[in-house]
UniProtKB/TrEMBL annotation:
<keyword id="KW-0813">Transport</keyword>
<feature type="transmembrane region" description="Helical">
    <location>
        <begin position="189"/>
        <end position="209"/>
    </location>
</feature>
<feature type="transmembrane region" description="Helical">
    <location>
        <begin position="83"/>
        <end position="107"/>
    </location>
</feature>
<keyword id="KW-1133">Transmembrane helix</keyword>
<dbReference type="Pfam" id="PF01061">
    <property type="entry name" value="ABC2_membrane"/>
</dbReference>
<feature type="transmembrane region" description="Helical">
    <location>
        <begin position="159"/>
        <end position="182"/>
    </location>
</feature>
<dbReference type="InterPro" id="IPR013525">
    <property type="entry name" value="ABC2_TM"/>
</dbReference>
<dbReference type="GO" id="GO:0015920">
    <property type="term" value="P:lipopolysaccharide transport"/>
</dbReference>
<keyword id="KW-1003">Cell membrane</keyword>
<feature type="transmembrane region" description="Helical">
    <location>
        <begin position="128"/>
        <end position="147"/>
    </location>
</feature>
<feature type="domain" description="ABC-2 type transporter transmembrane">
    <location>
        <begin position="38"/>
        <end position="237"/>
    </location>
</feature>
<protein>
    <recommendedName>
        <fullName>ABC-2 type transporter transmembrane domain-containing protein</fullName>
    </recommendedName>
</protein>
<keyword id="KW-0625">Polysaccharide transport</keyword>
<comment type="similarity">
    <text>Belongs to the ABC-2 integral membrane protein family.</text>
</comment>
<keyword id="KW-0812">Transmembrane</keyword>
<feature type="transmembrane region" description="Helical">
    <location>
        <begin position="51"/>
        <end position="71"/>
    </location>
</feature>
<dbReference type="GO" id="GO:0015774">
    <property type="term" value="P:polysaccharide transport"/>
</dbReference>
Length: 278
């Protein structure tokens, strides 16, 4: 294993060891590995069930129309109003948390490829993002239906939605990079993130409205410290015409810039150790 790891380190060195952005650009230009493998994995899982890929729509249907009917009624909201709120929020949350959870174990799950010399680690990071993108696509049909039910969708918000998604995926990239490197060193991180994700989902105003926790309360401050709250707000608020504070825009901007710097630093510093850690 030591000899294989040494060989992997030499291969990485020839590509510019730990050069995050150059390796990421190379991965983007060659999507055959990360994009195709992600899609084939989804198809392989779908073929094992009677309803195939339709099962991938089940989580969005349960979240939007199951939880939407229950919690919307508790808050005095009609399903036509609440379905769009929960659909947009759940879509963003699912996309980002999927990228993070997949990335936490992505290096160890691709152990054989890395040990065999495929050590452009950004390919595996892009693989996690590709899976998150396909998860987002599975939410689109239900989300579009929910928006058709909503009485006042803002056209400007719809036009801004793709830009917001780009920002969301950029944040998914740096989060995935950080969690992938830490997860390579500490293999239990994936299970920890999976359990914490339940708390984060409940802390994020997806099945409830943010005005239910004012900023002056301790719970309101905790909610506003949650990055998922600001990412969801950035995407959902313009579409539904909800108020979006300047604080959320500043929070996302600062988080994105600092996160990319952190990911770049950690990748340059620790990427060469991944073959040894796994």
């Amino acid at each position: 294993m030591t000899a294989t790891a040494s060989r992997s380190s030499r291969v990485m060195g020839r590509g510019g060891q730990g050069a995050f952005w150059s390796e990421l650009a190379a991965s983007w230009r060659n999507p055959e590995f990360w994009a195709l493998s992600s899609w084939l994995e989804i198809l392989a899982k779908a073929r094992k069930s009677r309803f195939g890929i339709l099962w991938l729509l089940a989580p969005s249907i349960v979240y939007v129309y199951g939880l939407g009917s229950f919690f919307g009624g508790m808050q005095g909201r009609s399903l036509s109003e609440f379905a769009a709120h929960i659909a947009l929020g759940a879509m963003v949350f699912r996309t980002v948390i999927s990228a993070v959870i997949n990335s936490a174990n992505v290096f160890s799950s691709n152990f054989s490829f890395i040990m065999d010399g495929h050590v452009r680690l950004t390919d595996y990071l892009m693989q996690s993002l590709a899976k998150a993108f396909f998860d987002l696509c599975m939410y689109l049909p239900v989300t579009i239906l929910a928006l058709c039910m909503f009485p006042d969708v803002h056209l400007v918000g719809l036009l801004l939605a793709p830009l917001a998604l780009i920002v969301i995926f950029i944040n998914g990239l740096w989060m995935g990079t950080v969690f992938a490197l830490v997860g390579a060193r500490y293999t239990d991180l994936g299970q920890l993130v999976g359990n914490v994700s339940i708390f984060l989902f409940l802390l994020t105003p997806i099945i409830w409205y943010p005005d239910q926790l004012p900023a002056s309360s301790e719970r309101g401050q905790l909610m506003r410290f949650n990055p998922f709250f600001h990412l969801v707000t950035l995407f959902r608020a313009p579409v539904l015409g909800e108020p979006m504070s300047t604080a959320s825009i500043i929070y996302v901007a600062v988080m994105t810039i600092l996160g990319l710097f952190l990911a770049t630093f950690l990748y340059r510093r620790y990427a060469r150790f991944v073959p040894l850690w796994i």
